[in-house]
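PROTEIN–LIGAND DATA SHEET

This sheet pairs a single protein chain with one bound small molecule, fe (ii) ion, given as SMILES. Inputs appear in the order they were entered. The predicted three-dimensional arrangement of chain and ligand is reported afterwards as a token string under its own label.
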Amino acid sequence: MHFDKLETNSTIGVANRRVERVVNQLIRSYDSMAATLRIGGRKAPYDDLNYEFLGGPNDPLRKKHYDKSLRLLWKAEKEAPQLDFRDCTAREKVLRQNALSSMTPDETEAFEAITLPAFKEFLNREYSPREKEAIVTILSAIGHGEAYAWMVSTDVLNLVKSTGARAALTMQVMEEAKHFVVLREIIRAFDVPIPRQSVWEYILMERVHKSNGLEKFFGMNVLIEGIALSIFGVMGTLPGLEILKKFHLDESRHTALPTNYFREFPLSKWEQHNPLRKARRLSLILPTLALIPALEEDFAELGIDVFDFGGSVIRKVSTLAERNGFYLPLSKDRLFPLLDTLFNSYCQLTRTQHTFRSFTLSETSTGADMLAVEKEIFSN
Ligand SMILES: [Fe+2]
Ligand SMILES: [Fe+2]
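PREDICTION REPORTED AS:
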């Protein structure tokens, strides 16, 4: 490569570099002193000398979350062509067309309700108006949760240390944005009124959003993701809702994020066992318990006992909480029998026939693929 070099004044060049060095020394020293005195200083947790965020590279986390997210990246246009998303590349569209051309006409029809009216007709054939209402109530509960997941993960992105963790959280922010906008379109296609958040969800989501520091990981990646994983685990096998398996896979990755982060930057013993924090964690779980009977009729419409669902959620959430050092005032072994007693007492009082059973042993996720995903998370 040939460049026509331009002439410059070398004396001025030297002077400019000197001025820059002096000003740099002044500004950096001032910022460093202000940071020590906690009266300001550099805002960005960034180390430009090492071209790294504070906390170092943390490549294992980057590989497990950022790289994996991109490998598993899914597009709404491919998974749900009836919705108004145009996010596939030209190459992806060609590949999809090739796949469709090798199917029989019957397979193609089943695979592809290509237009929104066709999808709506399909839903009307498949579900009664009351069933559609029940599905929308359950899905919108997590749909509103996706809005909070988007906001809270954006906050957490600015709390975590290391380049790898920031890359991982950036992918979570992007995935929560996709979950929010795509799920909203799916829910709207049911053509039934979409309920507001119940007050139990409202309290839960607001308190998670207001949590301090890495306690946000407990509220979001343990509690809300645990609920999301369980809802998608139930709904992803319903006709027309197969796309929710993709959501389920993303949420499974989000539940693993704190564990992988704490490997490099563990919570201190005091943060794990502080009685106030333990009590606050339990107080976040309590509104979730009120949510269980509130959804009873809608789950019943789909043939699912809401306490089986609730028990399954609590088991998953408590397992994740303990694994991450987010201890509760009670260990799992003491919490589960208490909750079983509570759930059974409620059922005894409100149902004509009820025999005691351990709801915390229930599993409401279905579908071999989703069960395999959950086995990978919960068997370790
Ligand atoms: Fe999500
Ligand atoms: Fe998530």
